[in-house]
Amino acid sequence: MEVALRRMIVEDLAAGVMARSTRAIARALSVVENGGEGAGALLHGLFAHGLSAGTVGITGPPGSGKSTLVNRLIEIWRVQGRRVGVIAVDPSSPFTGGAILGDRLRMQDHASDEGVFIRSMGSRGHLGGLAWATRDAVLVLSAASFDPVIVETVGVGQAEVEIASLADVTVLVLVPGMGDDVQTMKAGIMEIGDIIVLNKADRPGIEQLESSVMASLDLIPSGQDRPPVIRCSAATGEGLEALQTALEAKLAAAGRRTDRERGRVAALLESVMAERGAAIAAALVAGEFGSLDGAVESILAGGTTPYLIGEMLEGILER
Amino acid sequence: MMDRKIRILIGKPGLDGHDRGAKYIARALRDAGMEVVYTGIRQTPEAIANAAVQEDVDFVGLSLLSGAHNHLFPEVARLLAEKGAGDMILFGGGVIPEEDIPGLMEAGFRAIFTPGTPSTEVVEFIQREFSAL
């Protein structure tokens, strides 16, 4: 009976999300974020409706103006009558697990607009610039008919590139004063921008930034796409229309929906496998050694090694 | 890796730009392992209530030093109830005269913290209320 009750609640929640009820959407996001019982069933229920939104990733270093830029993009899309969803990820403390979720602060212009749904997430120990549940949260907002869904990453350094596998279009936001041109040569973050925004274009140093970005893009082999580079200033409004136009063009190009969905489904499957696979492996190891601590003790006592345990897991799989 | 975090919104309704206290509390709650959505200064009660609903927080903390708490605090409580979020736990802080506190408690606030309150007291209040949920 309890199981039946739980299923009903999940079904109500899924129906509420698709009926665009704010409270139901917010609750559903908490369920997927906390990953408890019901999360899988809820996502399963929303899945068929959860892949259609165009997804825009906004990434860049801390303080580069990502949230303010998102705020301005919301404005432009709202004028066009689009319903805009936003997932804004901020870092959780590795020590206490606490977080200050402050991106929303820059987007409060839209707090009383029913056509905008903004949700803040702590990264909760996940590396890569997103939170564990960001993919699932996008699915929920898409099922609630928000399109586009904007995902703002934590302030990133050089290698947090996970957003590229989630978003249809990734915008890399750079600002003047981040170091010499060796920085723009490095692998990682510099490679994932489908569009590169040179933000705070009203600040000194914008020319040097632009020339070093352009120089690094010059090495992209001919025939391959070169990302457009757009100077923006949320303060003066410079470049915002151009950015939105470029985004629409990229979304349309990413557009053949089936291809986009294929990529997104593959990424979702991968993340579910990683998460569930790790949980199953942990349970198997605990079964063998009494607990994970037991396995650690056994390794420390010289009884086994992590690698032998890995072999053991593969052995179990083969049986 | 997946666990239930205490989520709190800290907001400043009305025309009051003094946010040292709100930021101090937000930071203390973060250090106590909670997720704190800070919505910034000069917010309408409507904007705060909408943000609280979208963020699905467990607690809403309001800070005000302008003297308009008797109007703005109950208004946030009313809007939350209207939006089906009457179960969120409300608390407030700021320059609030003793004699105003009973009225605010009546309006649905579970605690009012006045100047000089140690941050640990706020943290303990939240942990106590959360474990009773």
Commentary on this structure:
The complex is a heterodimer of chains A (319) and B (133). Chain A is built from eleven helices and eight strands. By secondary structure, chain A is of the alpha/beta class. Chain A has three domains: 49 residues, no CATH class; 206 residues, P-loop containing nucleotide triphosphate hydrolases (Rossmann fold, 3-Layer(aba) Sandwich); 51 residues, no CATH class. The radius of gyration of chain A is 22 Å and the shape is globular. The mean pLDDT of chain A is 88. Chain B has one domain: Rossmann fold, CATH 3.40.50.280. Helix content of chain B is 42%, strand content 20%. A five-stranded parallel beta sheet of chain B has the order 2-1-3-4-5, sandwiched between helices. The model of chain B has no long low-confidence stretch (mean pLDDT 93). At the A-B interface, α2, β3 and β4 of A face α1, β2 and α2 of B. β3 of chain A pairs parallel with β2 of chain B.
Enter the CATH topology name of the largest domain in chain A.
Rossmann fold
User: What is the helix/strand order of chain A?
Assistant: HHHEHEEEHEHEEHEHHHH
* Share of helix of chain B, binned: 40-55%
- Largest contact between chains: A-B, 33 and 33 residues
Radius of gyration of chain A: 22 Å
CATH superfamily of the largest domain in chain A: P-loop containing nucleotide triphosphate hydrolases
As an assembly, this protein is heterodimer
Can you tell me the CATH architecture of the largest domain in chain A? 3-Layer(aba) Sandwich
